[in-house]
Amino acid sequence: MTATGERRASATDAAILELVRRRSETSRVEIARELGVTPATVTYAVKRLLAAELLVESGFASSRGGKRAALLRLNDQARWAIGCTIDTDRLSLVGVDMSGALRSRIALPLPAAADATEVSAALDRALSMIDPHPDARSSTGIGFAIPYGLGVDGHRLLREIAVDLDIPSITASAPTCAALGSSWSGEQPESGLCATVHMDAGLGLSILQDGRPLQPTTGNGATLDHVVIDPDGPVCECGGSGCLHQYASTRAILRSAQQADGLAQDLGLALTPASRSSDTVLIALAAARGEPRAREVFQGAVTALAQAVWSAISALGIEAIVMSGPAVQAAPVLVGQTMDRLLSGRARNLGMEISVSVSQVQPHPCGVGAAVLALQTFMTPGRASRSGAAGADAGADAGVDTARAFPPP
Q1: Which of 94, 149, 225, 379 is buried deepest, with most CB atoms within 10 A?
Q2: Which of 2-11, 14-23, 175-184, 286-295 has the lowest mean pLDDT?
Q3: Is 116 exposed, middle or buried (0-12, 13-18, 19+ CB in 10 A)?
Q4: How far apart are CA 392 and CA 390, in angstroms?
Q5: Where is this region: Disordered (predicted)?
Q6: Comparison of pLDDT for 219 and 304, the residue scoring more
């Protein structure tokens, strides 16, 4: 087969895998109709996928008077992928199967200001312990969720770690990983644009189009931190004033909590750099319970975030928004109601429709999404993003083997 033919076959195989994953079960006839290709093309592609044990026949469709069509589904156990998140105090791994379902997880503590050697040692230990399902033939790769504010040293650390691995690796921003985890869990529409707003150490925005990151780079995420929401607000290091992070970041939320008449003490906040995320979750949980001081602090941050999000999504005509992040998931009803009131209500006044939901992907949306990123790269080689050439280059930069669609078991 020529190189062009191999690429075409790879693209067809990938499209079929994605369609079967979304439909759970489907027939060859339905695949041909959905993809707009000939039955012969589907027949040859399905033969390849059955031989690679990526698809299996799972029974027959209901009879319509003729021969019943065989149904196809993913062989969930055929491959698995790993997602990794590196926080200030821990390293976490999750394992997902071919459908993106969570099968295994592990978290190991990290010492303060851990260097590459210490992180690599923790990762090696975690990889030796995680075992999603012994029947899986091989790991397709590992995805790393890039945390906010990683910096030059952090990126260098990730590169050093990836070099020593004997499996393909790829990286993407935490918001993009959160978006992918949400999409593969069925929380987002299959087609069109969907924005994921990730609220953690930073305030990130990732846009998926038809379930794929819109931007053709390994970062695939945009920050909302420096969106101006109050021109008369405090001066920011970016040169502007009243930037969002001054109102809605974990630092801002904790600063407000410290000023809220004993709230920090009553909630037992540790108030250390390593505890910012967990402290913010405690505030969100208290706000969800109706604690008035916590509710004022947390709802004020979500209100500021909604203002910045409106500026981004209204300009692009985005109609679906998923909120993500540890604190957001700790107070889903409060966040959902606040965002719906400030975004959906505002959109309806203009004759638009915007749906807002809160992601329920557990245990770590970024970890699950990072594993999905590795799995998606395996299933659609050379297409880590929606831009074919750029996606292939991005994958190569991240250490992803894009040369072969389906490595032998």
Answers
A1: 94
A2: 2-11
A3: middle
A4: 5
A5: 386-409
A6: 304
> Exposed, middle or buried by CB within 10 Å (0-12, 13-18, 19+), for 72?
buried
* pLDDT, tens only, 340-386: 889 888 888 888 888 899 998 877 778 888 998 888 777 765 443 33
> Within its chain, how far is the Cα of 208 from the centroid?
10
pTM: 0.79
- Nearest Cα residue to 145 out of 191, 192, 198: 198
Please give the Cα distance from 194 to 207 (Å, whole number): 6
> What is d(CA 227, CA 205) in angstroms, rounded to the nearest whole number?
12
Spatial separation of the C-alpha atoms in residues 98 and 79, rounded to whole Å: 6
**In the block, residue with structure tokens 């091989």:** 138
The C-alpha angle 407, 177, 405, rounded to 5 degrees, equals 15
What DSSP assignment string belongs to 240-279? -BSBTHHHHSHHHHHHHHHTSTTHHHHHT---SGGGHHHH
SS (H, E, C) 306-360: HHHHHHHHHHHCCCEEEEECHHHHHCHHHHHHHHHHHHHHHHHHCCCCCEEEECC
Question: What residues are paired with 56 via a beta bridge?
Answer: 73
368's tokens? 């699950």
